[in-house]
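Lab notebook, bench 4. The sequencing result for the construct came back, and we need a structural model before the next group meeting so we can plan mutations. Quick request posted to the team channel:

Model the 3D structure of this chain.
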Amino acid sequence: MASFADQIRAFDKKTEAKMEKAARKIAVDAFSAVIAESPVDTGRLRSNWQVAIGSAPSGVIGGDSFDDTPKESFSKQKGDDQAVAAGNLKLGDTAFLANNLPYARRLMNDGWSVQAPTGSFDLVVQRFQAIADKVIAEVGRE
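Done. Here's the predicted structure in token form:
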């Protein structure tokens, strides 16, 4: 029979693993929502969402040319985006979602688009608690 101390260590390890899983899933779900709410004309705005752990990404994707295929979901992307989803995001880390196009802030925050007149980013911020609550409930049932 395991000692009380061993039981506490096992509980601690299991709890930490669940917290990390929840943090990763909340990041993926919130980032996916931001990308999905991004207005699409040419696809450049959606194609320039970048994720990094520890510090905000800089630059734009594709320079003067770009992939005009809209990103449908953060979780389907590559590089650091997948690193967050795959487990490189640990408790205490900060995950950044950035779009460094010069017009991104105006489109996402100020509603500079007929497709997103109220400001897409604000819509996701308003849903963030619901996103987090859903993930925490899911992870808690495991």
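The first strand starts at residue 50 and ends at 53.
Will bring this to the meeting.
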